[in-house]
Amino acid sequence: MKINAMVTTPDKDFQKQTLNLAEPKAGEVLVRLVASGVCHTDATVLDKTIPVPYPAVLGHEGSGIVEKVGENISTVKPGDHVVLGFAYCGTCDNCLEGNAGGCENMIPLNFGGKNQSGVTPLTTEENQDVSLFFGQSSFATYTTVAESNIVKVDKDVDLRYLGPFGCGLMTGSGTVFNSINPEPGNSFVVFGTGAVGLSGMLAAKIAGCHPIIAVDIHDSRLSLAKELGATHIINSKNEDPVEKIKEITGKGAHYSFETTGVPEVTLAALRCLRVKGTCATVAVGKRDLTLNVFNDVVANALTLRGVIEGDAVPQLIIPKLVSFYKNGQFPIEKLVKFYELEDIDQAFTDSSNGSAIKPILIIDKEYKA
Asked: Where does the record place the Enoyl reductase (ER) domain (predicted)?
């Protein structure tokens, strides 16, 4: 079938093109996309931090409606509302142990341009392959995905808000719920109050953490963090966050969550911890981090933990996040700003300069919740 998509090439970030999309084969689902979040991982492809084969259709926070299913599909049917998660194999040791975020095939399946069958469902009108991204390529009007990419959600929830649950908000919240798993009363610090950081902070609030400290350099984002549940906020341009955190907590924080990828911030996220504390990081950064292993880690028996996709299984965590959204514990409407698909360049600009915390592209303008 013919679809419209925003195609990325070495010469142009985004160009609207007509592409061919393969019909769903056995184990695959055709989805009409309603919306897609814009994620920092998409931007890391544009700036060449993470390589993917070109041309490609990016986007990996899609939400939409099932249009057609291939053979042997048991979890969804046409008309179902779905959120699209990342691609994972389901058969490696980590997947079988319930940690799809640690899938041993994560890189080839999400960044290699092909699906688990070793092909891409996307081609140009001249029959040139176009890379699939995260198994979904959601900057398009339709997508053909594996059943494992699909998470069915309630039809009474506005699909336009739900796409970011498939990556950014799952990563932030999953890091708290799955990776560090704090106990009520544990102290928690988030460095960087973008969508990932704020979703981690909201999860920390649900988990009963106290105090909850937000660190950033933008007062507007810190004000939002305070509104959403931070007990303390620190502008690290104006005061030393390590000293302030130790003043607030007494011994240092139990847990820190680093989302920026800035080496100096990562060091602060380690140095603000109490003895036996844990720093979890999900960041993608260009600069190397230099630290003294003894002074910065061993001397206080600290843990520095890297987390991918919140150590989550999309089919388990996304329904929980939707429930939290429905009951008001996850007010994502306060994080998002809507854009039309044709305004994708502006959405990325606003994400980069901080004027939009979580841009969402509206793909189906006719959709009504």
From this structure: 16-361
Domain of residue 204, CATH code = 3.40.50.720
Whether residue 193 is found in the same domain as residue 234? yes
Both 52 and 152 in a single domain?
A: yes
Question: How many distinct structural domains can be found in the chain?
Answer: 2
Per residue in 292-331, pLDDT (tens digit) is: 899 989 999 999 999 999 999 999 999 999 999 999 999 9
Provide the β-strand partners of residue 63. Answer: 35, 83
Residues 158 and 32 in one domain: yes
